[in-house]
Amino acid sequence: MKRKVWHIYRLGLKELISFRYDFVLVALVIYCFTVMIIVPSKGTGLQVRNSSVAYVDEDCSALSARIIDAIQEPHFKKPRAIAYSEIDRVLDNAECIFVIHIPRGFQRDVLAGKNPGVRIDVDATAIGHARLGAGYLMRIIDDEINTFVTGVSTEADLPIRLVTRVLYNQNRESSWYMSVVFLTQMITMLSIVLPTAALIKEKERGTVEHLLVMPLLPVEITIAKVWANSFIVATGAMFSLFFAVKGVIGAPIHGSTALFLFGTVVFLYAATELGVFLATIAKNMPQAGLLSMPIIVPIGMLHGGTTPLESMPPLLQNIMQFAPTTHYMEFCARVLFKDAGLGTVWQQLVAMALIGTVLFIGAMYRFKATFR
């Protein structure tokens, strides 16, 4: 047993030394854990920001002027006036996302107790801004009409009072949450790519045969590649958590970083075994890349980070329960956002460990069948 542990340790060191001199992989890891997290998190927002608005004011009344003046930054750009005949052209040419049409006699009808309509034309090809921005505009219009009619800027008394309290991310900064989502995606990608590339490189250079003629077992070779590449990814993940997520983006980390590291190691056990399994199927690096893309993209996009699992079809929800990324994303959200303890996230840890064990058995079977 002691000899096997020594073999695994020395083989892992060989992997780390080989990675050290592979400058392309080193640059890829640094790039993924810095640029690929910071730039998308800051550049991709879930909130409405700087949406372009045009308006057609046929009423030219005090109420219509109030509505137009209430549309302000940072959610919207300053509205610009257009003619009614220009509405279709403005939307077709993507000059504006929203066009507000205030009909003639609007203020008169409001004061008379009628229910006049304000039309909002939306360019729905900008999906994110179209949905949220239309809701913002309707809220602004309703508030301005209520204030103009009643003279009071508060909402009418309701039988109940709804109080919303945000425990994490009080300002609802999407970059805080998206940075963790992109971090999990980079961990997933690298934990699959690195062991796959390492084993394919061994096959292309013929060094796998050298290892197999030595007094080494396939399980020792596999575990060595798993722990070495997991060490690289875990180190990069912790660096990115403090440098990119907390330092550059400014997202506060409420939970235990030690528990996050432990859960990341459990996830890497499953993800790196998946990379080894793919390496036993592919014959060269291009094939490995083609095989990994149909796996990395779905499990990275459908793990519940960008889209809630509840909004997916039931069949897809059940399928994604067999993906380690689904449990890892839920684990990260609970630990980093909600300060959850081990007693809350043990189910996710067990699920990732079980999936990793199944992949380990499959990788071992394929490894023996491929290199015997």
Question: What key attributes describe this structure?
Answer:
single chain, 372 residues, mainly alpha, abc type-2 transporter like fold, 15 helices, 4% strand, elongated, transmembrane helix, ABC2_TM, ABC-type transporter activity
Q: First CA to last CA: what distance? A: 23 Å
What is the topology, as strand order, of the major beta sheet? 2-1-3-4
Give the count of helical stretches: 15
Number of self-contained structural domains: 2
**Average pLDDT reading:** 85
Major sheet details: 4 strands, mixed
Q: Which percent bin holds the helix content?
A: 55-70%
Break the fold down into its secondary structure elements and pairings:
Blueprint: H1 2-20, H2 23-33, H3 35-43, E1 53-57, H4 62-70, E2 80-81, H5 87-92, E3 98-102, H6 106-111, E4 119-122, H7 127-150, H8 174-205, H9 207-213, H10 218-248, H11 257-281, H12 285-301, H13 314-320, H14 324-337, H15 342-371
Parallel strand pairs: 1-2, 1-3
Antiparallel strand pairs: 3-4
What this model shows, in words?
InterPro entries: ABC-2_transporter_component, ABC2_TM, ABC2_TM_bact-type. Its main location: membrane. It is found in: Cell membrane. It is built from 15 helices and 4 strands. The chain has a 4-stranded mixed sheet with strand order 2-1-3-4. The longest helix is centred in the middle third of the chain and has 32 residues, at 174-205. The protein is 66% helix and 4% strand. The chain has 2 domains: 2-44 and 173-371, no CATH class; 53-150, abc type-2 transporter like domain (abc type-2 transporter like fold, 3-Layer(aba) Sandwich), CATH 3.40.1710. Helix 2 runs parallel beside helix 3, helix 4 (62-70) crosses helix 7 (127-150) and helix 10 packs across helix 11. With 372 residues, it is mainly α. Helix 4 (62-70) links the parallel strand 1 (53-57) and strand 2. The chain has helices spanning 2-20, 23-33, 35-43, 62-70, 87-92, 106-111, 127-150, 174-205, 207-213, 218-248, 257-281, 285-301, 314-320, 324-337, 342-371; strands at residues 53-57, 80-81, 98-102, 119-122. The model has no long low-confidence stretch (mean pLDDT 85).
